[in-house]
Write a structure and sequence with these properties.
- The protein is mostly helical.
- It is built from 12 helices and 5 strands.
- Strands 3-5-4 form a 3-stranded antiparallel sheet. A two-stranded antiparallel ribbon has the order 1-2.
- Strand 4 and strand 5 form a beta hairpin.
Length: about 250
């Protein structure tokens, strides 16, 4: 895909072109050699995406924030009133950015393509965009569907959680992280569960035992066992490595 994108980019810049007269592809080797050709695939893809129409770029930014895979429904809620074009998803599939199962589910064709799209977002604006997307999802997704999209919501709000100032909002997001952590515990995904539960504990703070006793207790209770497992696994891995560095154990 990178090679195809590179050739398309060179063609857009008229450094390679098809000659009808000679019936073959022509190229300006001197200009191509002078052009700084980055070996970084992600950087090149980002540069290519940066030349796309504005609404296409906006759609790619939103999709990049939704993770490796997402449903068309969640994108619709994330964009709200933003204009990305009625044929945005179809165009992304045609361009090779996204793949679809034929229904409403989409995934990035490669993780580096997602990274390239994420690179379109200025570093200083990423937390704000994540918080905006997460807030939109939280407000627009019915309680009956929240379980299905909870990771999309929690992940985005967590990325922008530093911008939260209202204490009640922090409590609400902490409860969201508790639900995400509990869901992962059911799947025995302990490392991921710890991340959500610790985020929740950080959000409620040290003074939450009074006003939010039940929520705080549930966070600590839920986090106790997976945290113990993760820490023990880490210590065991370190002990095995130091006793026999050649050992390639996996925990």
């Amino acid at each position: 895909m990178f090679v195809l994108r590179l050739l398309a980019s060179l063609n857009d810049e008229e450094l390679i072109w098809y000659s009808i007269k000679s019936r073959r592809w022509m190229f300006d080797l001197q200009k191509i050699e002078l052009k700084e050709m980055s070996e970084d695939v992600v950087k090149h893809m980002t540069e290519h995406m940066g030349r796309l129409p504005g609404k296409m770029q906006l759609g790619l930014k939103l999709c990049a924030c939704l993770g490796p895979s997402f449903d068309a429904t969640i994108l619709e809620k994330a964009r709200k009133d933003a204009i990305i074009g009625d044929d945005f998803l179809e165009s992304c599939v045609e361009d090779g950015f996204l793949q679809t199962d034929g229904g409403s589910s989409y995934k990035w064709s490669h993780d580096q393509v997602q990274q390239a799209a994420y690179g379109l977002i200025p570093l200083q604006k990423r937390e704000k965009l994540h918080l905006l997307i997460g807030s939109r999802l939280l407000l627009s997704i019915p309680p009956s569907e929240m379980e299905r999209f909870i990771f999309h919501v929690a992940d985005n709000i967590n990325r922008g959680a530093k911008l939260l100032e209202d204490l009640e909002q922090k409590y609400e997001v902490a409860e969201l992280n508790l639900r995400a952590g509990e869901k992962l515990l059911q799947q025995q995904s302990f490392h991921s569960a710890v991340n959500y539960l610790m985020t929740g504990i950080t959000l409620v703070g040290d003074d939450s035992w009074g006003p939010k006793y039940s929520l705080t207790l549930r966070l600590y209770d839920a986090g106790r066992s997976p945290f113990f497992i993760v820490v023990c696994a880490s210590h065991l891995r370190s002990h095995v490595y130091h006793s026999n560095p050649a050992c390639c154990c996996s925990f």
